[in-house]
Amino acid sequence: MVSKKVLKPTKARKKNKKTKVHGLVVKDDYSWLRDENWKEVLKNPSTLKPIIKKFLDDENKWTNENLKHLKKSKNIIFEEIKSRINENDRSLPVKDGKYLYLTETKKGLQYSILKRKLANKSNSRYRTIINWNILSKRYKYFKPGGASYSHDQKIFNYSYDDKGSEFFSIKTFDLKNKNKKFTTLKNTSGGSIWANDSSGFYYIKMDKNHRPSSLWFHCLHSKQNDDELIYEEKNPGYFLSISETLSKKYLTLSIGDHETNELYLLDKDDNDGNLFLFCKRKKGIEYSIEHDLEKSRFIIMNNNDKAIDFKISYIEEKRKQPGHEKYPKKNWKDLIPHKKGILITDFADLQKFLIIQELKDGLPRIKFINKKTNKTEEIKFDEEAYQLNFNEGLEYKSRTIRINYSAMNIPTTIYKYNLNTKRKKILKQQKVPSGFNKNKYETKRVFAKSHDGKKIPISILKLRNANKNAPTLLYGYGAYGMSMTPSFSVARLSLVDRGMVFAIAHIRGGMEKGRQWYLDGKLKKKKNTFKDFVSSAKFLKQSKISGDITIHGGSAGGLLIGATLNMAPQLFKSAVADVPFVDVLNTILDASLPLTPPEWEEWGNPILNKNDFLNIKSYSPYDNVKKQAYPTLLVTAGLTDPRVTYWEAAKWVAKLRELKTDNNNLYLKTNMEAGHAGKAGRYHQIEEAAFMYAFILDSHDLL
């Protein structure tokens, strides 16, 4: 890789800080990079301490100067990716009552446009409801949030984040009278659910520590200070979220962390608006709920009674009695019993059908049950590795669902599936304007044996005529039970077309092989995640699929990258860690940070438990950097990131610079005007992907 160095890398000063926890010393020489005023920085980045800003600016200068030779290649890849997308495109319309809604994108515009028309008038034309492009013009950073509308579909809400800090503002407008003024709500989570009488809406408010902790009702013509508090959660480890049943009868309030939740319901037809407890929290038990209006019952997806891979239960609907749990779990009946190894991942209740999505042996499938006959049908697909999901739409009485299907070598196809006739019809196929021949590519699933004999699935995309020992990008995540699906991506073709193999390691910590796969990659078993990833890389090399390997992960996947590099740096040619969660011990020891209390269920509580402390300390990337050679590394961060704070990446890079024994390049790129997800807007996101791919290709001398 050619790189002309015109500057010296930043050498961070060290400030000796030692803290005693459980009688043991935690050393943190770069703690000064954390601005104690971080809460204000989230809302106003200009308040960042000058000394910290200088460090980040200097690192950005170092990165920009030393990687400026990538500009031409980045631009080429940007144009390649852009040429593979329909810049002028429309989503499929979704019917809700008398209207059809869709989103539209136009060439040269960063954001989509929400439109609607009357469903039953052939001469009706789509009219613009929300144009995010116009709304974004006054902001340096702009991320669209949710859009919702009143029950009569006359008044709309939209939300947006203008800092990247995920504090969303909600604005309201009257479609017929745009001059009508409404209060702008601040510091919300972004979503809103309207009352059935259209008098106002419910929303979640963020507290001062950036936690979605309270549910409020806002009357349309009042100020935010006059809003009614419906529920406030006192436990900082539990976050709030709201949804609406498809029947539109109930608002659902879910209060939970990563492995436990409880549910409250609110009858939207009840003028008193009283919440009632549906099922109380019990450690390790999770629920999601739908309302079966047809049979007057509730349907609950849950892992109660040791149903590790979830089951579907039901209970008859009763008149509500506020103030206590009215639907105790002992009265629930099984509708779909638990089957170990078959993970239920999603479900939906329609008037005549119950839809179920499952994951078996790492591959998804969709089943549906006719409520009248109780007959179960399965919708099948045949690829070796694919991505599949369904959308039930917005109408409870619907007899159709939409199915999204893709594979790593097959662009997305959207089917309309008729649940009565059991026939599917193609509604839309993803077009690749520059051309795409699926026969040029090969996708397959292979299995690596981990340290304890467990078989780790690896999904692979490569050219059919790819050489053995090809350069490879190996991606992983492995946390929170999130499954990484082998779906289609136009961006990664820029790597594969240049001879690289793209691989996803389905490591423990995700749920690709069931919930036990997740449990075996968290808490005291967390190191399985990293060992699985190392084993995957070794297998790819030993099987001669891969030669030199780049590894990539973001957020908790950045922890994976950091821990893996400490364990086996010699395996890899280069690495990319996006907004990486690498200062794990210090973060999980700090209960004041936004996400720390709910994270204890994922990683352990090192404040209260010495064994958790020792376990986290043994793998935390920042705490385990040592004097050894590391591969070429690109690290990204966002100044206003509330999830993985900017100083995690900064501290890690500073310590790597201090201790690494090699001459390989190390780059930190901090976005000073964005948060966890990077820049907003589709062209900005393509630009960031193009830069990363140019870096990866350059590290393999493929440019």
What does this structure look like?
With 703 residues, the protein is α+β, with helices and mostly antiparallel strands. The chain has a domain of 180 residues: Rossmann fold (3-Layer(aba) Sandwich), CATH 3.40.50.1820. Helix content is 19%, strand content 35%. The strands form eight sheets. The protein has an eight-stranded mixed β-sheet with strand order 31-32-34-33-35-36-37-38, sandwiched between helices. Strand 23 and strand 24 form a beta hairpin.
What is the straight-line distance between the termini? 9 Å
CATH superfamily of the domain at 19-80 and 550-583 and 620-703: Alpha/Beta hydrolase fold, catalytic domain
Strand content: 25-35%
Rg, Cα atoms, Å: 26 Å
Number of strands: 38
Spatial sequence of strands, sheet with the most strands:
31-32-34-33-35-36-37-38
Helix content: 10-25%
Counting helices, strands and paired strands, the structural category is alpha+beta
- CATH architecture title of the domain at 19-80 and 550-583 and 620-703: 3-Layer(aba) Sandwich
What number is the mean pLDDT?
95
